[in-house]
Design brief:
The complex is a heterotrimer. Helices cover 47% and strands 21% of the residues of chain A. Chain A is built from 13 helices and ten strands. In chain A, strands 1, 2, 3, 4, 5, 6, 7, 8, 9 and 10 form a ten-stranded mixed sheet that branches. The longest helix of chain A is centred in the first third of the chain and has 25 residues. Helix content of chain B is 78%, strand content 0%. Chain B contains nine helices and no strands. The longest helix of chain B has 37 residues. Chain C is an alpha/beta fold. In chain C, helix 3 packs across helix 4 and helix 4 packs across helix 5. The longest helix of chain C is centred in the middle third of the chain and has 14 residues. Chain C starts with a strand and ends with a strand. The chains are: A alpha/beta, B mainly alpha, C alpha/beta. The interface between A and B is medium-sized, with 35 and 31 residues.
Chain lengths: 304, 217, 214
């Protein structure tokens, strides 16, 4: 006979067991035997391109799950060297170089590029519109010192931050002071901060275009968009399985091949066209040699 | 541009949050309950010192717990062979450690009002040590549940551990707080706001439950 | 038989019991004394709930603080101490009254039957399914005494059992105690009138010392 109290306990017990197993099942079903872990940069992930690529890849290989861990370029590389990722997608050549040289990352390839741009308030208090990028940085510095302009830096060792530091070192200036703000955040937040504060910043085209077209940056404009020093090169690397144990080399290689294949490159080149009117990224196919040269040049600047 | 798919995404993420933080709270209870029973109303100096430490670490920054555990669970770390990093279970473990001081302290505190009386009553009626402790647990069930709910609220609303140990992987470790952080990062507020609403609903509902429990007992 | 030999008890610096030598045997023993004289402590020490600071407590000849649990548990199960302020567990009155039986391994069915029987004897069977929280203090006191009797103890130690009871209930209690012919009963009270109902053996306690034995 089930008495009143016992039935209560039974019901509670059954409910507890059911909810625990449901939870476990719910968490388990997202697992698969084949998981590829890719550490990447926030700016790249936030555009949505990677999820788009992964979805397409999943359609072709339903048994493989690609997991992206989005952090700054510096951290993405460090995570890979700790063995917490099988593959990296980054855009910081001078950082990448160290990992390639010590043999942590292998089989590097360039899969996309676009351009960094210098954005700033419409009124352009430093007067940089249309200038050469280095000249523009010099002007921003002067205006900053004189208190006429602000600059927001990512300050997070990301690829964009690396490039910004290279640009400052190429003009031989060391920015500091109240006018130089370090956001310590990703690209979108940094742009939103620049928009709020009427400040200049260095941004990648993808993130800027996306936010601009969504009308979130009403006070900002792209002021400098041309110049070799602004090229933004996205590379893919596989973590060296001979150096770091447990790397899912086969899966990484397959996905890498997909990225540089006609299909992957097609997706990269058309991503965002429907939404923003122009692509956020350009595929690297056909321009590899040129891009490689540029890549090497950036790593040399990094040593300035 | 609010679409139904955002709403469904939000539901899946919210359910995942509830499952992860719920399991974390249950897991933490398995060691917090015995510790609380042992420590509540303690008169020993060591016991009091432990309670003091627990009390002081209730506000432990989540990022510190996350960072330390990341270093442990990372493949290069001492527990790397478990391959738990960037799985939901890493978050479960991280959050269970995160809420341990809070859960233990709350339970020890509420048990201390009952412990002496109930244990003495049980002994006076012939209970063994084990029976006496079971009686104590039965008597303090409402307190234990409300302490667990408070801890669940802390777990479900924290960001540091979930982000560092889970990695905010879509469909796997993306929970309400990490998703909100990402969406804000992307400058997209629709999903962030929907999830923010869910998070608020969850925590308010739990708070109401706690109040109802306190009122009843 | 409970035997206290040179028993002292102190809370920190404060001596609550001093050098008590006392035997509780068949029949009713009344410990009479004003509030704060150490009655409660004396009963708890005799029941094996408090460990004396000095001296020995022998229950049925066994020193309960000097023996392994296998020996002491069966002995402790023969003793029931009833608190002055009734402590009831969450749940129904019936659950409370059958609690002691369940501790002793009785199944739900038979312990409930036994509990009902006791409640009927006390004339409170209508309270059986009431929540213990809804009882008046007097009802709670009666329930906690019923809970003690349900396990048919060999030793029954009642701490101020009359303090919350009205006249009728006192009469029921007096009658019940009188009928426990095989049980060693100890009643601690400050109530001289109630004490005189059991004049066989009265021990007067003041400031932790026995001042008179009658």
């Amino acid at each position: 006979m089930i008495t009143g109290k016992n039935s209560k306990i039974t019901i509670a017990l059954v409910l507890a067991i059911v909810s625990i197993s449901l939870s476990l099942y719910f968490l388990q079903q997202t697992y698969s035997t084949k998981v590829l872990r890719v550490s990447t940069t926030t700016s790249l992930y936030a555009t949505g391109l990677l999820d788009r690529l992964a979805d397409e890849y999943r359609r072709l290989h339903p048994d493989i799950i690609i997991q992206f861990i989005a952090v700054g370029s510096g951290e993405a590389l460090r995570k890979a060297s700790r063995g917490d990722a099988d593959m990296v997608l980054v855009h910081a050549p001078n950082l990448e170089k160290q990992y390639v040289e010590d043999n942590t990352l292998v089989e590097g390839d360039i899969f996309a590029y676009n351009f960094f741009i210098i954005v700033g308030p419409k009124e352009d208090p430093a007067g940089i519109r249309g200038l050469d990028p280095l000249e523009a940085f010099r002007k921003i510095y002067e205006a900053g010192i004189e208190g006429r302009a602000l600059f927001v830096s990512r300050g997070d060792e990301s690829g964009t931050h690396q490039r910004e530091k290279i640009l400052w070192s190429l003009v031989g200036l060391k920015p500091s002071g109240d006018w130089y703000i370090e956001s310590g955040s990703g690209m979108s937040k940094t742009l939103l901060i620049a928009n709020e504060k009427n400040a200049y910043t260095l941004a990648d085209t993808g993130t800027y275009l996306k936010l601009k077209l969504e009308d979130r940056l009403p006070y900002l404009e792209a002021l400098v968009t041309r110049g070799d020093v602004l090229i933004n090169i996205y590379s893919v690397y596989i973590v060296n399985p001979e150096k770091i144990s447990g790397v899912n080399y086969e899966l990484a290689k397959e996905f890498k091949e997909f990225l540089v294949s006609g299909e992957g490159q097609g997706i990269i080149g058309s991503y965002g066209v429907d939404k923003y009117g122009k692509p956020l990224f350009y595929p690297a196919t056909g321009k590899k040699d040129e891009l490689k040269k540029q890549w090497l040049k950036i790593t040399e600047w990094g040593n300035v | 541009m609010y679409s139904m798919s955002i709403f469904y995404d939000a539901i899946a993420i919210a359910l995942r949050s509830l499952a992860i933080s719920g399991l974390a709270t249950l897991l933490a209870s398995t060691w917090c309950v015995p510790i609380a029973v042992k420590l509540s109303g303690t008169r020993s100096r060591v016991g009091k010192a432990i309670l003091g430490i627990l009390n002081a670490s209730i506000g432990l920054p989540t990022v510190i717990v996350g960072l330390v555990l990341y270093l442990f669970l990372s493949r290069a770390g001492p527990l790397g062979f478990l391959r738990l990093l960037y799985t939901p279970y890493a978050i479960v473990i991280g959050q269970s450690i995160l809420v341990t001081p809070l859960l233990t302290f709350l339970m020890a505190d509420s048990l201390s009002h009952l412990k002496d009386t109930i244990l003495e009553l049980a002994y006076s009626l012939g209970a063994t040590r084990r029976q006496a402790i079971l009686t104590l647990l039965r008597e303090s069930l409402p307190h234990i549940i409300s302490s667990m709910l408070v801890s669940f609220n802390r777990a479900v609303g924290e960001l540091g551990v979930a982000l560092m140990l889970g990695g905010n992987i879509r469909g796997l470790t993306r929970v309400m707080t990490t998703a909100i952080a990402l969406e804000v990062e992307k400058g997209e507020f629709e999903l962030a706001l929907t999830l923010g609403g869910f998070l608020l609903l969850t925590t308010s509902f739990i708070t109401l439950l706690i109040r109802a429990l306190r009122w009843r007992k | 038989m409970i035997k206290l030999i040179n028993v002292s008890f102190s809370y920190g610096e404060k001596n609550v019991l001093e050098d008590i030598n006392l035997v509780f045997d068949k029949g009713v023993t009344v410990v009479l004394g004003p509030n704060g004289s150490g009655k409660t402590t004396l009963l708890k020490v005799a029941a094996g709930l408090y460990k004396p600071s000095r001296g020995k407590v022998l229950i049925g000849g066994v020193n309960i603080w000097d023996s392994p649990p296998e020996t002491t548990i069966p002995i402790r199960r023969k003793i029931v101490y009833v608190h002055e302020k009734p402590i009831l567990l969450r749940g129904t009155v019936l659950y409370n009254v059958s609690y002691g039986l369940k501790l002793r391994g009785s199944d739900t069915e038979s312990s409930r039957r036994k509990a009902m029987e006791i409640l009927r004897r006390f004339g409170i069977e209508d309270l059986a399914y009431r929540n213990s929280r809804e009882l008046s203090t007097g009802q709670a006191q009666l329930v906690s005494i019923a809970r003690a009797l349900a396990v048919s103890p060999q030793y029954l130690l009642l701490d101020e059992p009359t303090s919350n009871l009205d006249k009728n209930r006192r009469a029921i209690l007096e009658e019940t105690i009188r009928n426990l012919s095989d049980t060693i009963v100890v009643v601690a009270t400050h109530d001289r009138l109630f004490a005189e109902k059991f004049p066989r053996k009265i021990v007067r306690l003041e400031n932790g010392k026995i001042v008179d034995r009658a």
